[in-house]
Amino acid sequence: MALSDKEKDLVSQALQFYVQYAGAQLPPQAVQQLMTVAQGIIGKLDDIGESEGSPRQAPLGISEEWFENVCITCKKLLPGGRCEEKITVKFPGKCDPIIKYERNKPLSAETTAVT
């Protein structure tokens, strides 16, 4: 189960407070190491609850066709089904791989019969 935005903010604020508190108690080199670790933890907050073994699910706004033909092979899809492509997060289905797939998709029998 992934963390909510409020939970992520709370963990981030707690780590920042801890680093500030440790800054008054530890030597500068130890504080720098602690800051590096805290930044690594903050960077991983989005991935908590998503593991390699979890089933991949289509991100919101992505059709099953796009998911099966494009997203499954995309490197930007995280195991929990969240897409880290900035364009897709804002505009589902508007990323380059999906647009290229739609352009190269063979015309269906219905559209060829009409023309």
> What is the H/E string?
HHHHHH
The shape, in one word, is elongated
Q: What integer value in Å does the Rg equal?
A: 21 Å
- Please report which band the strand proportion falls in: under 5%, 5-15%, 15-25%, 25-35%, 35-45% or over 45%: under 5%
* Largest sheet data: none
Residue share in helices? 55-70%
Low-confidence stretches: none
* Strand tally: 0
- Residue-averaged pLDDT, rounded? 79
Separation, N- and C-terminal Cα atoms: 49 Å
Overall SS class: mainly alpha
DSSP summary: helix tally: 6
Main attributes of the structure:
115 residues, elongated, mainly alpha
Would you give an account of this structure?
It is a single chain. With 115 residues, the protein is mostly helical. Helix content is 56%, strand content 0%. It is built from 6 helices and no strands. Helix 1 packs antiparallel against helix 2. The chain starts with a helix and ends with a helix. 10% of the residues are buried. The mean pLDDT is 79.
Write the layout of secondary structure elements.
Blueprint: H1 5-25, H2 28-44, H3 64-69, H4 86-90, H5 96-104, H6 109-114
